[in-house]
Structure formats: structure tokens, C-alpha cells
Amino acid sequence: MATENGIPALINLLNLDIESVLVNVMNCLRVLCMGNKNNQRAVRDHKGIPYLITFLSSESDVLTAVSSVTIAEVARDNKDVQDAMAMEGAIPPLVALFVGKQLGVQVKGAMAVEALASYNPAIQRAFLEKSLSKYLLKLLKEVKQS
């Protein structure tokens, strides 16, 4: 799929306003990016990151959760893509997920935070400046109790 220019076609589908299509497209992008730096860069290069970040602020918890796990795999172990995510503004909406969202959405958001901050001191610092650690501690307590 990726070798036949499937990633730009998938990213183009992120313009649609049909939740089931958006979920399937993001899941496809997520799987294509797992352990594949070329596909991760393709999502960045074909302007897919802004769409994924936009869905973090969706009214739909499903879209928010799916975009979080997609961001995690698009950015995982790829500093260039991590930095691109931060430059596109991923940090504030990710932090916002931990205020008033469902526990499941917060857990998916934590996956995105981990992938973005992994081995990236600048992004770690940005999350700390937004007081993310207090929200993560609260999440850990809630997960432990459930």
C-alpha cells in the first residue's frame, strides 16, 4: 500500500466527515507506520500530522482515542517525526486530553505522550512545562483503582 502511494491517498481521506471512515483510515496509517520510518516520514511529508492533531480535540471520544494511538505509532522512535508533531502543535491538545476525558481516552493519550517524549529531551521538557506529570500521576491512581 505504501509503495503504491497509498499514504497520500489515505491522508486525503482524512478530509471526510464520516467517523467510521476516519477511524479506519487512522488505523490503517497506524499499522503502516509501526516500525517503518519511511511510512512515518511519508505521513509527515504528505501533511498528515495536522489532521491527526485536529482529531485530538474532537467531540468524539472514539476519534480522539484513535488519533492518539495513531500519533503514537507515527512518531514512535523517530525523532524527526516527534519534532514535527511538536512543531505542528501536538503537545497542548495531548495535555488537554487528561482534563475531563474518559479514562480510556486518557490511556490512549498516554501512549502518544510516551512515543513523542521517548528519547526527546525537548519534548519531555515541553510536557513538563505544561504540568503533564500531575495529570499522569492522577491517571495512574485511577487506573490502579479500576
Folded structure, characterized:
The structure is a single chain. The chain is mainly α. It contains 10 helices and no strands. The protein has a single domain (6-145), classed as Leucine-rich Repeat Variant (Alpha Horseshoe).
Main attributes of the structure:
146 residues, mainly alpha, Leucine-rich Repeat Variant, 10 helices, 73% helix, globular
Tell me what portion of residues adopts beta-strand conformation: under 5%
Large-scale geometry: globular
* Count of alpha/pi helices: 10
Query: Helix fraction?
Result: over 70%
- Named CATH topology: Leucine-rich Repeat Variant
State the gist of this model:
With 146 residues, the protein is mostly helical.
SSE blueprint and pairings:
Layout: H1 6-13, H2 19-33, H3 37-45, H4 49-55, H5 61-75, H6 79-87, H7 91-96, H8 103-117, H9 121-129, H10 132-145
